[in-house]
Write a structure and sequence with these properties.
This is DUF222 domain-containing protein. It comes from Lentzea aerocolonigenes. Residues 144-164 are annotated as: Disordered. This protein is α+β, with helices and mostly antiparallel strands and 218 residues long. The protein is built from 9 helices and 9 strands. The strands form 4 sheets. It has a 3-stranded antiparallel β-sheet, with no helix packed on it. A hairpin with a 4-residue loop joins β8 and β9 (216-217).
Length: 218
């Protein structure tokens, strides 16, 4: 109808209808009145403080801004021509973005301690994955025991590799734990290491002893 009544082109007519919808209150099916989508703009237009061109520019800018930014946009429009409202809207959007809190990184998954062990050729192969705190505590206990042996006149320099020194340090750490006063219990009894061998072999210090798991120890 606007196309014929006031000789507007289609674009202008569509924009006028959109502006009217944003500036007018509406009635719900239950009879409740809803405030205009752009109440501050509607008030300024009613006062004659802004033009229809201002309204068009404000409506377009507000498509990308939160509702609380409308008052600042209208205050700017009261003092400036419609052509600069779009740029001011971008400046407002940028300022609001800068005020947003920094996104927080997702909480990392908690590390789970893992131990893998298997017997091979009379030796227990051990692999472990420890969390940061447990790993640091393990290193703190192991490192003093794994230091090179002092160069004494009786033994000479320590020729063991780092792997050998740390392996023997780990074995010493296990022995220290076996003698600790607060070891966990197994089946209601303190943890013990049981070796079985004949009395004669024990007396003669020959042969092999057998562990509970079937492995033999010279």
């Amino acid at each position: 109808m606007l196309l014929h009544a006031v000789k507007w082109d289609r674009k202008a007519a569509v924009q006028w209808v959109a502006n009217a919808g944003a500036l007018s209150s509406s009635i719900t099916p239950t009879g409740s009145e809803l405030a205009p989508e752009l109440p501050a703009t509607a008030e300024a237009l009613a006062e004659g403080a802004v033009s229809v061109e201002h309204v068009t520019a404000l409506a377009k800018a507000m498509e990308k801004l939160p509702a609380e930014a409308e008052t600042a946009m209208v205050d700017f429009a009261r003092e400036h021509p419609p052509g600069v409202i779009g740029k001011f809207g971008k400046d407002v959007a940028y300022a609001l973005c800068q005020n947003d809190p920094e996104p927080r990184d997702a909480e990392p998954e908690p590390l789970v301690n893992q131990l893998m062990k298997s017997w091979k050729n009379g030796q227990l192969e051990v692999k472990a994955l420890l969390d940061t705190v447990t790993g640091a505590a393990f290193e703190a206990m192991l490192d003093p025991l794994a230091k090179p042996r002092p160069d004494t006149s009786g033994q000479g320099p320590d020729l063991r590799s780092r792997t050998e020194r740390e392996g023997e340090a780990f074995a010493e750490l296990v022995n220290l734990m076996m003698r600790a006063d607060q070891l966990p219990e197994h089946g209601g009894e303190p943890v013990t290491l049981t070796l079985t061998m004949s009395y004669d072999d024990l007396a003669e210090q020959v042969g092999q002893a057998m562990l509970d798991n079937g492995e033999r120890v010279p």
